[in-house]
Amino acid sequence: MELIDRVKKILEKYEICNECLGRQFHDILPRIKNREKGKILRTYAIINSIYKKEEIKIKKTEKCYLCGNIFNKIDFYIEEVKKKLKNYEYKTFLIGSKIPPELISKEEEFWEENGVDFCEAIKSSFNREVGYNLKRMTKKQITFENPDIMAIVDIEKNKVDLQISPLYIKGGYKKNTTKGKVQKIIENLLIKKTGASESIFYSVGRLERNVKTNCYRPFVIMLRNPKKRRIGLKKTRQEINKMKSLSVSTLSYSDKESIEKMKMEKITASYLVTLKFDNNLKKEEIKRIRKKLLGLRNKRILQYLKKKIRKPYIRRLKIKIGGKNLTLDIESTVGFSINSFLGGKSKPNLKKLIERDFKIKEIVLKKYRKMKTHEMYS
Length: 378
Ligand SMILES: [Zn+2]
Fold this sequence. Notes:
The protein has 3 domains: 162 residues, THUMP fold (2-Layer Sandwich), CATH 3.30.2300; 98 residues, Alpha-Beta Plaits (2-Layer Sandwich); 110 residues, Alpha-Beta Plaits, CATH 3.30.70.3190. It is of the alpha+beta class. Helix 4 packs across helix 6. The termini are far apart. Bound molecules: zinc ion. Zinc ion binds next to helix 2.
């Protein structure tokens, strides 16, 4: 069928706006905007009919059959999205929409009758129209993969919902205190600076309350619904490092994949544990304790933590014993609870093994080490 006949047929049967008429032929010279193309085709149909001395009965367009006049309200939707985005910092965005199902099925029927070969669907057309106008106004980028913010226009409910991508910040922290979990300090500061609604902390293994660290424990913090995405990490680090209870390494922006990567890594943790006895050990006792402890090398320790059974591995163990003191230099796979091991909730545990009371003077997490492939299977 000739183009002109297709256009004429549509105009005579349907109340249709220029936008919707134009987008039926979108792929022919897509650079010409749908609305403009619709206007050209409509005018041409009239001119052509007059030329051919044919009658043409074009339906008046009060309410477009295909879009219900949503394209006339495009500026309103753009303003609504703009208002919502105003409170957020972002570089990239994407527009989505919820088109009433009734319009979608009308469109499908229409295509069956009038052809779909050059058409741009109502949804893509609407999203593009809102998106490109916003891009021009805000000078931000449209990104299809992982935009900072996705704004979804719900046409039926007449509202805009935002989906904000979380912000990820990674680094490492040293804990210089035996009181409390210092990670909360970092999280709270980042929440305050980004205006996020909540944070989730990811790290390796466990770091118990009474353990200090001599090395940086790696972490990634996910911040949900951040209002700000660039907070000045150098300055943030300086602020944290003014506190006595902790210090952080260089902070950097990260992504979701880094959490997966951190979880996949096989890592060991080394502790230096200093214990003290009430009185001096005798030679015999030292010998007995040393023998028992060395038997732990390359053994699995059974631990019950949060109602789950875990079996961390002791990879290396060095002992210094003399006088009233016992120092353990112990390397285990992550997940190992040093307190459970010392205090008696593990099998085997130190208390039972050495059959003697002791006081814990200090526990220091010395370092993390990536395991080599051959270690994992031995
Ligand atoms: Zn329309």
